Amino acid sequence: MTHSGTVSRAGRIASVPEKISITLRVNDKAVKLQVAPWTTLLDALRDHLDLTGTKKGCDHGQCGACTVLVDGRRINSCLTLAVMKEGAEIITIEGLARDGVLHPLQQAFIDQDAFQCGYCTSGQICSGVGLIAEGKARTPNEIRELMSGNICRCGAYPNIVAAILQAMERS
Amino acid sequence: MIPFQYTRANDVADAIKQIATDPSAKFIAGGTNLIDLIKYDVEAPSRLIDISHLPLRSVEPTSAGGVLIGAMVPNTDLAYHPLIEGRYPLLARAILSGASQQLRNMASTGGNLLQRTRCFYYYDTATPCNKREPGSGCSAIDGVNRINAILGTSEACIATHPSDMCVALAALEATVHVTGPAGARTIAFADFHRLPGNTPQRDTNLEPDEIITAIELPPKGFSENYSYLKIRDRLSYAFALVSVAAALELDGDTIKEARLALGGVAHKPWRSTAAEAALLGQRTDATAFAKAADWLLHGAKGYGHNDFKIGLARRAIIRTLGQAARGKPQSISDKKIR
């Protein structure tokens, strides 16, 4: 959809709104960017900051591939606007490793063979990191329930649960 | 997404002022439903007024013995709050039955009340829908209506309200606090959502220039005998085909007070005073529960694909009342219905 001053719905708005300057804190770094108000956090990460580890799956909050951590909590980055997250601490899959050492859950995904095609994996891992921080899941059933927002079409679910259990035991 | 302007509201008064000057603007809090609707071209606001930073994030006991919940409290925070887990576990369970943890982390308490139906035709802009485009017709009545309503429907609309949280709030008889240009007022939960009638485009009795500031729970939480049972097409992260919130106050095995609300079957959480009255003074047995189910489902009507919901709801009501009576609420993570 392209716009040249006016939008197709007559009278809705007179002109295309200006881009907004914002500062996001992403993976411990402050980054300035100019975004249109309707830019989702997901698109800002991928298209403005080249952080393409966060995946666009459904773009409607149904698959969980876009899961990132905002102020320590897992959210769907496709259903929030970048302008709404000014000042928030955002962690993506690129920000989980420390000093070249994988996050324990990243290592657990390798150890437990918890992915096949890998498209959902960054969302699964960010979601799992959020789940462990919440401290509400202890059993496999509870992990399955609280990971239900992340779809894996390869069906690696048993291995994903095993990976989260491994990371929980070691953290 | 279509272009829109973005502003932030500094406080409730500022939010009301901003929405008054721009009738085609919308408030955004969690955004989990509104941004999705904008992506589908169902909503086309000129401006989003960000209310997510308003200081409405506390959960506090009231002097009346209840609890006041700020409209911006995220669903997860509410479900895990000690006051809610301890005194209103029915509400906690209902919240955790809905959506995914990511969405519950984003979604606000006020926004949960205002989410729109998930009727397929409401989302499909290529089809007529009286809720999306008043007067265009209802595609669901003669369409694929497996997920649609069986109670309180009209010729204009058979959509359901999708919330789980609201089913518990209806059973608990919460109150909605709202503020508008004329000042603050409260709306009883039963009066907050509307039946479709001839105006299915209006889901609630909130005026367009008003904002929800808080939800108030009365003192009674039914924390001993309650259950929330949600039946859906997969075991988690799906909207209800039928859900039941049941809350009982017992004297031995005699029912002193009963609350019963259904989700997934109507344009609003469905209650019936006759069904609840029918339980009073009765023993907690299947005969009494079946009678209450029949009262609650009185006048239920299927539209073809959703005919199964009538029998399903009847059985679910009986099961949920049994769970409540035994003090064994439905588990969130163990999916077996006992």
Structural features, described:
The complex is a heterodimer of chains A (171) and B (338). Chain A has 171 residues and is an alpha+beta fold. Chain A is 30% helix and 15% strand. Chain A is built from 5 helices and 5 strands, in the order ββαβββαααα. In chain A, α2 (104-111) packs across α5 (157-170) and α3 packs across α5. The longest helix of chain A has 14 residues, at 121-134. With 338 residues, chain B is α+β, with helices and mostly antiparallel strands. Among the domains of chain B are: 5-49, Uridine Diphospho-n-acetylenolpyruvylglucosamine Reductase, domain 2 (2-Layer Sandwich), CATH 3.30.43; 226-326, Enolase-like, domain 1 (2-Layer Sandwich). Chain B is built from 13 helices and 11 strands. Chain B has a 5-stranded antiparallel sheet with strand order 4-5-8-6-7. In chain B, strands 1-3-2 form a 3-stranded parallel sheet, covered by helices on one side. In chain B, β2 (25-28), α2 and β3 form a beta-alpha-beta unit. Chain B is globular, with a radius of gyration of 19 Å. At the A-B interface, β4, α3 and α4 of A face α2, β3 and α6 of B.
Q: Give the helix tally of chain A.
A: 5
Our Rg estimate of chain B from Cα atoms comes to: 19 Å
Q: What is the share of helical residues of chain A?
A: 25-40%
Quick one: how many beta strands of chain B? 11
The class by helix and strand makeup of chain B works out as alpha+beta
**CATH T-level topology of the largest domain in chain A:** Ubiquitin-like (UB roll)
Q: Biggest interface, and residues per chain? A: A-B, 43 and 35 residues
Rg of chain A, rounded, reads: 18 Å
User: Helicity level of chain B, as a percent range?
Assistant: 25-40%
Which residues of chain B sit in consecutive blocks of at least 5 with pLDDT less than 50? none
> What is the 3D form of chain B?
globular
Helical stretch tally of chain B: 13
How confident is the prediction overall: mean pLDDT of chain A?
93
* SSE topology string of chain B: EHEHEEEHHHHHHHEEHEEEEHHH
> What is the chain-wise order of helices and strands of chain A?
EEHEEEHHHH
Looking at the chains present, what oligomeric state does this protein adopt?
heterodimer
Main CATH class of the domain at 226-326 in chain B: Alpha Beta
